[in-house]
Amino acid sequence: MKNLIYKFLVLTLGANMLVSSCTLDYINPNAATEAQVLSSKDGLFALAIGIKQLYSTSALSSNILTPSVTTRETAIMTTFANLEELENGGTNLSGENGYTSRLFARNMRVKGMCEDLVKAAQTIDLEPGTRSGLIAWGNLFRAMTLGNLAQNFEQVPIYNDKNGKAQFSDRIDAYTEAVNILQTAIDGLTTNPESDDFLSFFGSDISLINSLYAFKARYALAAGLYDDAIAAADQVDLSVPSVFKYDTENQNPVYEGLIFNVAYAPRHNFGLPAGLEPDANDQRVDFYLTGDTIPSAVNVLPIRTINAPFFTGFDAEIPVYLPGEMALIKAEAYARKGDLGNAVTQLNLVLQKQAANDIFGIGANLPPYSGGNTQAEILDEIYKNRRIELFLIGTSLEDSRRFRNITPPDGTDFTTERNRNFYPYPADERLNNPNTPPDPSI
Predict the structure, then answer these.
(1) Counting C-beta atoms within 10 Å of the first and last residue's C-beta, which end of the chain has fewer, N or C?
(2) Are 364 and 352 in contact (CB under 8 A)?
(3) Which of 27-41, 166-180, 227-241, 266-280 bottoms out in mean pLDDT, i.e. has the lowest?
(4) Is 382's pLDDT higher than 80?
(5) Residues 6 or more apart whose Cβ sits within 8 Å of residue 55
(6) Which of 318, 321, 342 shows the shortest CA–CA distance to 332?
């Protein structure tokens, strides 16, 4: 019943809230006004649900599928010009590209809604556990959008601007902001756990406290805050799942791209280069992929068929994060600190994990690490396992830059591991926002 009560607000809210200089939004004259939404508990609950809906059905597909082409996780399967430009990469990719532009605009839109939610939750009369829950919810999704932008663009607007003139900051500053607001949310929930009112409305699909710690660990690692990353990852309860749920009205957007519309297909060997291919006995290969290797429909690249249960149905649940990422975060953080013994210990937790011991059924079931003992060799193994264990979660471009010191080609070269370092800023943003930075060369 509560979904019916709030359906009107949820569906119309995003159109009314101006969050960037992007011109993709429209105004619905029948929608609740921003002031009405932000002045009551019911309005904030509706806004929070709208944030999750917009993120999970729109932004998430851009965050996963767009960089998957750039890092060779997927190959394109249709001759749509914008997709061909994305797969060609290099200097072929411009700010006019619809896919990279949507990645920017969708995250900016959700981020602006989160900023409004957090601000309003601090100003109206709410039960302490309801206030802390709403602030944590808003900060979680704001941190996720900041992280998605920082993974794909050199500079990021940390705060939106209602007049479309957002200031840009270095991407590491965006990661640091994400870490800080996630800790603020954690502190708030520690002092005032979610109220029964909050929990009964939002349910248990997303474990708020575990998600806050998981994303703090991810973004602390990206910011080079290794001790913080280890400490946060240690706090995540790996037995508690967090998922985005879908149904006939709100369908799994990655399924739509991979299977329903067949615009993308998984690359053979997860797009990993020679020398870092999966072990022949790695059970994660069959978890994610099925069928024989065949050529892609456009550029004759080696592909297979997706098998992961997260993407094979319109109502398939997508994990908010994967438990194996926590061990891999700790493995990398220890390795970069020079503590190679602990790095290998954490790496072995992933290599030896059996599917039955993972809440999503992901397990390599391999022997412990037996490769070289240098930092570089251990980091190579960690990178390989990140690309396999965390296939299509949206972190591949950040991972590729962090681990693989290669220069993407200026022109088209499908043998290169990644075809861009960062994306150009959308042409609409440049046209409307004078603070837009120069585009990166590649």
Answers:
(1) N
(2) yes
(3) 27-41
(4) yes
(5) 110, 141, 144, 145
(6) 342
